[in-house]
Amino acid sequence: MSFGLGDPAALFERHGAAIYRRCLAILADTQAAEDTTQEVFMRALTHRDRFRGDSTPFTWLYRVATTACLQQLRNNQRRAEKIRGIQATARRATEPDPSQRLDLERVLAEEDEQTLAIAYLRFVDELTMEEVAEIVGLSRKTVQKRIEALRQRSLAKAEGGAA
Predict the structure, then answer these.
(1) Taking a C-beta distance cutoff of 8 angstroms, is the pair 78, 36 a contact?
(2) What H or E segment, with its residue span, contains residue 77?
(3) 13-18 long-range contacts, Cβ below 8 Å, gap at least 24?
(4) Which of 24, 62, 81, 107 is the most buried (most CB within 10 A)?
(5) Tell me: the pLDDT tens digits for 36-82?
(6) Hey, what domains does the chain have and what are their CATH numbers?
(7) Which of 73, 85, 156 has its CA nearest to residue 119?
(8) Which DSSP string corresponds to 94-139?
(9) Tell me: the pLDDT tens digits for 25-41?
């Protein structure tokens, strides 16, 4: 039975610490980060057939970790706090036109998991569009369109109150 990702123990040895740091960065809770890291590697074992080799094992695990952490935030009712943190970070982001800054707290509450991951990777982790695209498994152009649509929804909410 081919694992496709290599030996499970070696996979954990090589990437476990980085995945734990990713989980800790999102969850801000050591126990939750440990549990989620373990869950990520269990998912890798259980769903190893989903790894198509389009990306590196690390990128795939990073994406699984990000999704698992964001889902945990949603399930634990800490989502609102994290969105406020994302909004504060986005406010600090320098953009040519301050009116283009995202009002993420108001907008992200209505977004799907993938859009939330894109916003988190771009505005909190400050990754490039190319890095975000690779992690979420979309083209750079699609990621750019999603961020622009998110920005437009944010501006509409800011101008109209509930667009």
Answers:
(1) no
(2) none
(3) 14/58, 15/57, 15/58, 15/61, 16/41, 18/58, 18/62
(4) 107
(5) 999 999 988 887 777 777 778 888 899 899 989 988 877 765 456 55
(6) 1-76 (1.10.1740.10), 80-163 (1.10.10)
(7) 85
(8) --SSGGGS--HHHHHTT--HHHHHHHIIIIIS---HHHHHHHHTS-
(9) 999 999 999 999 999 99
